[in-house]
Amino acid sequence: MALGSPRLLAVSSLVFFALSGCGTGPHEEETPTVGAQASEIRIANSLTTQALVLNAISTNADSNLLLGTSALGQLFHPTLGDENTRRRLHDPHAQRFMEYLVGCALTVEQEIAYYDPRDPSPGVRKWIGQAGLCPDWADSPPTRSCLERVSACVLARNNAEGRRVELSMRGEHQFYSSGPNIYTLDAKTRPAAHAPITGNALASFGDCVLGESGEQRDCGWTPDGIGRCTPSTTVVVGAGGPLSCAGLSPIVGSSVNGPTVLRVCEGIAGCDHLDARNLGEATGSCAGSPAVPVVSFTCPAGGYYSVMSAPASSTTVEWLANVEAYPDSASTYGLSEQQVYSVREGAFYGNIFLPNELGAEVDVVELGDGDKKRYVVVGADVIVRGSIYRKMFSCYDPAWSSGAAYAANRVCALPSSGSNCAARVTGPCFTSLSPPVAGKCDILDGPLTPRDGDYEACHDDDNVLWKQSVTTYLHAPCDTVAKEMRTQSCGRTSGTVKPLPTGEELPFPFPRKK
Fold first, then answer.
1. Confidence bin at 433 (pLDDT 50/70/90)
2. How many CA within 13 A on the CB side of residue 372?
3. Nearest CA to 426 among 410, 444, 442, 407?
4. Which tens digits make up the pLDDT trace of 437-469?
5. How far from 349 is each of 81, 215, 460, CA to CA, in Å?
6. Does position 330 have pLDDT exceeding 90, yes or no?
7. Looking only at Cα atoms, what is the longest distance across the chain?
């Protein structure tokens, strides 16, 4: 399920969630009036772990209880919503947390209006849905399974560096017993619409307003697909142009209702015209100047490229392009979600919305009076050993060469001391012999979507079963790990890690899970 693609949040058919920032480096969150951020590990779009585990909504017992028992639209109504909740929205981390909660819970057609009380421009704002894991929460109190699905989704959206990372979120749930799995997989994965590292939305995927045309414009483009190629080889893609403008030549791809322009970008995200990742552009026709019938480019070192398409004129309607890679190129184009996101990271599960299971308390207090009123976030500067959400858990794929270290860096703001964590790391997700450690999940691939590799029926350290886990897949092993930790924690074993046959006992002293 991809959040972050046009259909996606990671998690969409996979959930493409974006873990991102902005600017030339990791985007820094606004800090509360009171509080110190001891370390930075971020959720999609730069939601820091500080914002996830120490905010005045989910880490406040009263608001946590209201969240878990109220309809979102009612609780955050701009004029009729809970007064204390409105006060707590003076905490920017609380607003960021809610942005991603709503993104996980609601669909792209849903939104929640709320009142932003912060100066200098207080007013009504909106949180927009994305993944659609619990759409009824907009107008009705959530069910337990809804809370667990959203908890797992929010936890899965973290990123050690604060840069945007697309990921594939997989799991199993049916809104109706005869209905489809709400976690689906894209047969063709579209390029991400945000720039890597910065997380800025790409202008090229926005609307054109002045009738712009040509392949150099940065508006009116459509993300088409992702390809894999052999680095340093020549790849040719087209949407109706001939391979050569001299005489008879094979036609690569096709277009309907007008000529097409193409742009090819390095990696799995789109790009703008002046982006350094722009590998080449084409008009898609031998006519005009320059006469570039197709895009020919050198496969980048990473072995992946993305293709964007658009009508030559942004005013063209009912235009359609069928992009293809020339068969003689050392390339496979139109990759599926499973082909693009093939690194299984681990599983996330539990329930954030349990006010009696919080390891900290954050609030917003009002100081002064009249025109001198100010609002201060209190309690956000604590350092708590272990997980602040005591009923949130994460297990790691045993293919990580240092699974425990990887998982700690994934969910803890202070991994070296195991403090200010968003979840408790329970161990490997399934049993393996390298080394022999009992796994936490009973099912290695749920039956609703065969071969998507989702961990199901996962247990915590007390052997309590959690049924709403989500499994995340990455494009590259080190995507969510800080640079300084990459050599220590994001290596993968060279061979396939295989589970023990069902019922086989682990060697002493690793007893089989009861």
1. low
2. 3
3. 407
4. 789 999 999 999 999 999 999 999 999 999 999
5. 30, 45, 9
6. no
7. 82
Separation CA 397–CA 347 (nearest Å): 8
Paired sense of beta strands 392-396 and 424-428, if any: parallel
DSSP string covering 5-53, please?
A: SS-------S--EE----SSSPPPPPPPSS-------EEGGGEEHHHHH
d(CA 251, CA 260): 13
Distance, CA of 428 to CA of 59 (rounded, Å):
28
As a whole number of angstroms, the distance between CA 485 and CA 166 comes to 20
Contact predicate 171/376, CB 8 Å = no
* Residue 79 CA from chain centroid, whole number: 32
The per-residue pLDDT for range 376-400, each reduced to its tens digit, is 999 998 999 999 999 999 999 999 9
Task: Work out whether strand 166-170 and strand 17-18 pair parallel, antiparallel, or are unpaired.
Answer: antiparallel
Distant-in-sequence, close-in-space partners of 449: CB < 8 Å, separation ≥ 6: 170, 172, 181, 183, 184, 185
CA dihedral 401, 404, 406, 412 (to 10 degrees): 180
Supply φ then ψ for residue 464, to 5 degrees. -75, 135
Residue 449 parent element (H or E): none
Kind of pairing between the strands at 158-159 and 166-170: unpaired
Residue in the structure block whose two tokens are 């796994």: 439
